Amino acid sequence: MDGETRTGGQMVIDILAANGIDRAYCVPGESYLGVLDAVREAGNSFTLHVCRQEGGAAYMAEAYACLTGRPGVCMVTRGPGACNAAIGIHTAEQEGVPMILLVGHISTGTEGRAAFQEIDLAAFYGGMAKRVFVADRAEDIAGIMEEAVALSLSGRPGPVVVGLPEDIQLSLVPAFAPKPAEPAHAQPEAGTLSEFAELLAAARAPLLLLGGMGWTAAARDQIAAFAESLGLPTAVSFRRQDLIDNDHPCFVGSLGVGPDPGLVGYAGAADLLIVLGGQVGEIETVRFQKLIDGGPGRRLVHIAPDESMFGKVVEPSLAICTDVNSFCAALTVLDMETLPGWPDALAGLRAGYEAFRRPVDFPGRENPGTAVAAMSDLVPRDTVVTMGAGNYTHFVLRHHRYHAAHTLLGPINAPMGSSIPAAIAAAQLYPGREVLAYAGDGCFLMNAQELVMAAKQNLRLTVIIFNNGLYGSIRMHQELNLPGRNIATDIDNPDFVEFAGSMNIPAVRIEHVDELTDAYRKLRGKHAGPVLIEMLTDPEISTPQATIEQIRKRAS
């Protein structure tokens, strides 16, 4: 490529393409015209999905990363655009997924001179991103982009921010052939695997807790086979139900919000807790009250891709720094035998999970969990389920059965507004699969505008709105802490059916939860693209386990 030149913007797209990244999500801005022009020149080899708000674009990039393992790319303009995209950076950091945010930045040499829409990228994103780069010269762009891709994928993956001053994006630089990033992954050492096997052999009440991101379908199958070969009770951390087939005989539930008390009790008494891939935090420890002190007989094995993840809440007895895929591959040759004492415990835990999954009967009231369970039985096993934040998510997490890998997009930082953008990204990647986007009435409106993209591209996704006229999660917390003293949680809604109709999205409103599956069949039977169902739900049914009245009485 001697003698050839490329613009700084073209080098950005060249390096993304070299790493198998063929798309980005954006709201266009005048501060990154050079990058946009490079996308135009790339033609059909690079797809740019144009969104209506930077938060929606960032959520789509984050969801793309969750589903593919490749860095999701979001492009935004400086100042307001960069601020709007911050929610996606926070989500990617919490999830531990690779993401690159490209920010059109102020011109070189104008820092601190009241430049239009100036923002200090390092100060703003420093607590969320793995690193923040700002290119000073066009010649630096290629090296920064290569490092950004590699860094986003290394160790515990995460978001990287790259500021691209507008004046250098169209500058010419010598062309070169970019190489894809090859992030190193530490392989588990033979000695630590032997120690792990010894701890497992000595355990009488073990629990395997799956979490984190970056799991391949192969690793998921390997850990499922390992657990089954030993009869090892296996749970998942918050919002990680798709890491194992929920019909697997060793799956015993989730240590997420509102967990099965029987599972919590077993986990607290377990003499060996194996945390694979993620980490235990406030949710899994029930506000740092459980699993913290297991007594002198408790052993904790923590397997994670980065040393910074160890010891944040509980100090591990054995820390193994490796990625989940390398560890699960190593388990296939680990010599273990079925151990006595576990089958009885496993049978009880599995029966407890099955009982806990059945929707509670609220006399005289309709439990929306029955609708979720019915939908779970109806849709294909590889259906992708998305959710944002709110008490409606607890019904979906508890009553939907997840079977295949990468079928749950529910960020662990529980951000409102992520469900619709995530569903759009999933439907674009998997055009032949069904995508269910569950959303509360408050959650839905935060990024409902992105459905314009779903309508234009005729994406196969189904939006199901839980409409109870409340910020239900906040009302629950008010009743728990200040019973009867409610404020700011009643919300007014537009006509969701008419809203969908304005985008030519077929929609229907149902007044009873048992009508959901019929409404879905009728809409999906007639329409291949996006459809919407507004399901009116009882505002008194606060959680899968309790009504507002019950919560208020307990708190009082």
Please describe what this structure looks like.
- The protein is of the alpha/beta class.
- The protein has three domains: 5-174, Rossmann fold; 190-355, 3-Layer(aba) Sandwich (Rossmann fold), CATH 3.40.50; 359-555, Rossmann fold.
- The protein is 37% helix and 16% strand.
- The strands form four sheets. The protein has a six-stranded parallel beta sheet with strand order 3-2-4-5-7-6. It has a six-stranded parallel beta sheet with strand order 11-10-9-12-13-14, with helices on both faces.
- The longest helix has 16 residues, at 138-153.
- The radius of gyration is 24 Å and the shape is globular.
- The termini are far apart.
Percentage of residues in helical conformation: 25-40%
- What CATH architecture of the largest domain do you see? 3-Layer(aba) Sandwich
End-to-end separation:
75 Å
Radius of gyration: 24 Å
The number of helices is 21
Low-confidence parts, pLDDT < 50 over ≥5 residues?
none
CATH topology type of the largest domain: Rossmann fold
**CATH hierarchy, class of the largest domain:** Alpha Beta
SS content category:
alpha/beta
Q: Please give the largest β-sheet.
A: 6 strands, parallel
Strand content: 15-25%
Main-sheet strand order equals 3-2-4-5-7-6
Tell me the count of domains.
3
